[in-house]
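Notes from hallway chat w/ T.B., transcribed later so I don't forget. T.B. wanted the structure written out for a chain they're using in a teaching module, and asked if we could keep both sequence and structure tokens in one place. Agreed to drop them here.
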Amino acid sequence: MDHDEIVRLYGPWVQRGPDDVADLFAGYDGLWWIAGGWAIEAFAGPHRSHDDIDPSIPQRDIPALRAHLAGRYDIWQADDGSLRPLVSETDPVSDTCENLWLRRSGADPWEYDFILMDASSTTWTFKRDARIRRSLPDIVWERAGIPYLRPEVQLLHKAQGLRPKDQLDFDACRPLLNTDSRDWLRWALGLAHPAHPWLKML
């Protein structure tokens, strides 16, 4: 489902940027970072527009996030094409849920699309292939004090969809990746998507 169809069905989104996410997390004690197209732009520079912004946390830290945002935002579980509000502290989040949507009330537009990642206190695991793992600190880098998902990890997530914007992101990053990042992405793609066209370009 593309962005226009999501807006038609579920309502509009406010344009937010990395500084807004940093403000949102002020005082938060857990690990967080920005993923998606903004993570690519932080690494490669501006090269396309963005429909939304994707803050990200380990799925295990959902209780801490909910406590941090209590009284400020309504949190909705976006899972398998359906949306469900988390009304009380005891409302469970499905183990298969990969996104949380945030808005201030039902009368307000959506503001943030949180991406939930599979991570222990030390290790990140790729959701589509558990053979691909990495030390949790090694999936994040910082620019101007804001943490972002590393470009090679973000490109691995984008590889399955291979939408036009994903190709633009790959093309912007590829000449800037250092040898270690390029080798890691080649290895990970070889496991998860062995026939992927990006392999010939790395």
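Follow-up for T.B.: The mean pLDDT is 94. Might be a good example for the class.
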